[in-house]
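Pilot study result, target chain (303 residues):
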Amino acid sequence: MKKPLLQSVLVLLLALVAGSAVAQVGTRAYAPENLRQLSVQDQTRVISLEYSEQSRGRRIPDDQLRFYLDQVNRSSWTFSRIKQDIAQSLGGNSGGWNPNPPANGQVTCESKDNRRRECRTGFRRNAVLAQNLSSTRCVEGQNWGSGNGVVWVDRGCRGRFTEGSGGGSGGSTVVCESANNAYRECRTNFRGRAVVQRNLSSTRCNENQNWGQRRGMIWVRSGCRAEFRDSGNGWGGGGNSGYTITCSSDDNRRKTCAYDPRQGRPVLQQQLSNTSCREGYSWGYTGTQVWVDRGCRGRFGPR
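Predicted structure:
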């Protein structure tokens, strides 16, 4: 009778130990290093919890959460990498993120060590770059963007930002995705020209290369996936007001760039390459595209 009793006690002790381990997993050791093992719902939960712990109870901004989920599932970020990035975005302490803009209405945000950082602005409209403070050029939609009262910077961009004037319907956004590298068009109600607010793909989205626009429409191809926003300016009152595209023949190869035919037939407005751009030889126009070849790089627009 003693042996069965001893076995029962051992089973009970093991169950208690296992229960304690499960409880610990539910508090601190709540995620594997490879978050791709988890469902998106569980990825969201553990990332949100990590942010809350580092920021003393604050809720992770929606666009920062979406950024991390994208990095986990497309760029294979580890949990350690996300924890490190959260600490960086918070400025290494719970008081980071510039909770209020300074008195002059400007916010300085910088990407240290080429890492992504987010800074709260308090702006009701999207931000504009007031001054580039880094040797790295800050390009909206590529290494900085804004929305929902936040400016984000990445890849070495350091700048001083102010609130935009918000002309037109600036602030509305549209997500357009090139699935399986296919061409896709997405309709918009933008009054102004679109800009990339947030790149959602591992493929970098570059205008006139793998994405472009016509009035009321955005197109993407070759794996570009991004959130676009209405800049509120650029189209003007109609016609060809200020409309230009830049097209470049890299490595002397033929390249095509989207062109809005409603703006009028394109001409070479500025040659940007040492190689001569001659219509019919190293550049031309077909329907909705400008093509360049043999090293020509130029800015094209209506006469």
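One observation from the pilot: The two ends are 102 Å apart (CA to CA). A full batch analysis is planned for the follow-on phase.
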